[in-house]
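From the shared-data thread, chain only:
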Amino acid sequence: MKMPSTAKLIADLLYDYENEPETTFGDLVDGIEDLSIETGDLELSLAISKYRIEERYDRKYLGMRGDMDSVEADFIEAVRLLAFGRTFSEDRNASANFDNWDYTLINSTIEKGQPYPAVLIYKVIGAREHELPLLEKAGYTLFNDTYLPPSAGKTSD
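Structure, as tokens:
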């Protein structure tokens, strides 16, 4: 018996979310998360990770009163693209022009040795291709939801 492709399984989860009234957004997220664990799909894991970072931030700092609509829309868009065999970054990068990328903010952050929120790397189109390599070259490391400069001492929560 042939196993359905990951894209087909994603499409099935989206179909249930969009057409079954009892299926909530949380059910969709949990289903995608379970699927990413089952399949080991890195793009699914990235989509889940991005969403969970925002969800934790909303819960921890905004008391779950933040505007998660755009985060949810981004998650659904990323998942929908994966259902069609494309990634969010491939879709966005295909039409983006990075010839005139502005490095002012990231260079200033590195010069001052300031932490850099990881969510910006994932939300700003092109940041993974342009800013993340600069952070890594400067010795920044990901800790919790922030890229920390090499001089910052890591402490536990």
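Residues 6-94 form one domain.
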